[in-house]
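Re: beginner question about structure tokens

> Can someone show what the tokenized structure looks like for a real chain? I only ever see the sequence side.

Sure, here's an example I had lying around. Input first:
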Amino acid sequence: MILHRSHCLSRRLRVNVSSFRLSLRPCSASFSSSSRRRGGYDDTIQNLQIGKDTRVIFQGFTGRQATANAKESIEWGTNIVGGVKPGSAGEHLGLPVLPSVRAAMEQLRPDATGIYVAAHQAAAAIEEAVEAEVPLIVAVAEHIPLHDIMRIHSMLATQSRSRLVGANAPGIISAIGRCRIGFQPLPTFSPGHIGIVAKSGTLSYETVGSLTRAGLGQSLCIGMGGDVIAGTNFVDALKVFEKDEDTEAIILVGELGGTSEEEAADWIKEYRRRVKDPKPIAAVICGFQAPPGRIMGHAGAWTGIGEGTAESKYKALENAGVTMVDHPAKFGGVMKNLLAKSGRNVKKIEQSAAQAQQRRSYHTASRYPRRPLSASTPTSAQQKRSLHLTADQSTTLLKSYDINTSPPPSPTPPSTHFLGITVARSARSPCIIAAPTTNPSQLAHRVRRLPFDYRSGPSPSIINDAIAYLQLDAAPPKPKAQTAQLIRALWELYREKEAITATVSLAVPQESDEVLVYDPYLFFDDAAFKSNKRQAALHGLRDTSSIPPTELEAEQSGIVFIPLESPKFPGATAQKDTQTPPATPQEGEPRNLVGTLVNGAGLAMNTNDVLSLRLSPPPYSTASANFLDTGGKATSQTISTSFKLILSDPRVSVVFVNIFGGLTLCDMIAEGIILAFREVGVDKPVVVRLRGTNEEKGQEILRQANLPIKAFDDFEEAVLEVGRLANGGQASQS
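And the corresponding structure tokens:
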């Protein structure tokens, strides 16, 4: 029998704030050990407490990315004890390689595994780790099919040994314990006392960088990830931070999509009521400027029916007593103020962080090898676009599952109902979604989700609960039976075709006892096709003729590009002659908008939010023309294509490049910008804000380029310059 030791994954380095002494202490015993009693997935929250002695293995250990990551992590101090290569045994980096995770558990006794395999292999790798009862499983891959993740969570829900972080997450890192399981940029981190949990990787790095510059450092940083379903969410992380003696304050980095932020707000309210001296909490939310109905880069960055918007998430956290900021670069100063107001000794916290860190230099040199610059370097990333079927296509597909649809009844019957199958993100499972109305003004408030297990499907009792909530429980037997059969048929379609959402509207006309089904909506996750080559026939139905050519070009280059609607500005808005004349005159169409080029979906959303907040009012009266995410690893080719896409919009008068160099090097980005500038023939001023790895080198490259490029490392200064140039200001050479 494999002993489960996750009640104390390691003895972690404890920085004693009051005495400035470093001492070793066991992990907090505040969480119950799942090895001592039967429990559920919640009992595995304790497994997130990683540290200097946490024993780590890599799945896909001998791969190129895993090898590079392991070398960096080992040099930093992570206790990597070996890895797995299916069917093979041997040695790699001087460490043992075993043929299976079970063999690794038996021989290496790891506390955690990092999964470094491609998306099409990731689900099987996670399942193997769950079956081997690895205490902590970290999955960093993007684009794992949603139905694979729901099946995995069906497995996780029935056990109390393994905890999942991710997928589509940068991972988890203990700056104090020097334990990294993921691909976070190590030069950004410093040991300290602020706990971070984030959906966005780039925004978490911005947060970390601000704390490092402020001398506060980080205790534990948990990447929740941007997928539809997260293995570890905000509340899970908050429970860890509450009990963690290394953590003096907490930061949440959220975005539109799901209800995790609202659930965190409820937890924080209860926490502040029951704890005499609660830890200060601050947060940032992004996605205020996201257009409705679009997926904003991250697979989970969309708002479903009844889910919170960026505005509702912000208000929920603010009402819970959380201090809100609009950009993560502000966190350093904000956290110092909050710590001081809470009665904590900021000087001691800074000094203890400095002792642990020994003041390593921040962002002056890279540990990562330079990649050669090439204009023709191909990009392997592909944007994963979800598939919506047309009404006719939906009708045909539903008919193949014996679901016959009709035109919407006219006039609308007094009683209509909304029904379907979708994702219950918090329950990490599929669910029946139901409402006793289809009235758009009421639907969001009256919709209810009834989760069920992915592997067993909706039970008769869940189906009956849904019928009751639809207010059809008093209907004649025939429509009740038809509705129950409809739910079963929708679930069959949902599972077999790997849908994200499948809904219809229902009515039972007074003159008939037949259920009328109309207004079908089918929404599919194409990761099953693009990552795993499943559902090829379904995704062959995609009609690209309705997609703008710029968006198709972006998709082919692995870029997420979404043009935004023109905002309405006050009459004082300047329209200078230096701006692009419209191709076709359109009354009232602004010509002073900002084209944005950003690496990372969260940072791209936040950039648009802050530009709107700072520059929409006079005298600037401008805002973003687009959302553009080059991806976490931008290349010269993606930069060049991004400029081409942005400048195809005649509304753009200035380009704002906002980069946080994590694994991406700022000097490489600077050279890529110059290359793109020359290839594309840029005739607009360009403002570049570089922060992160090799930022000084990147700024120097731009200064020497003798081009109309304004370079900044400070975000606020860059934004003000963007506003000036958007309204006719001239860019001087840097």
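Each token stands for a local structural state, so reading them left to right follows the chain. The radius of gyration is 26 Å.
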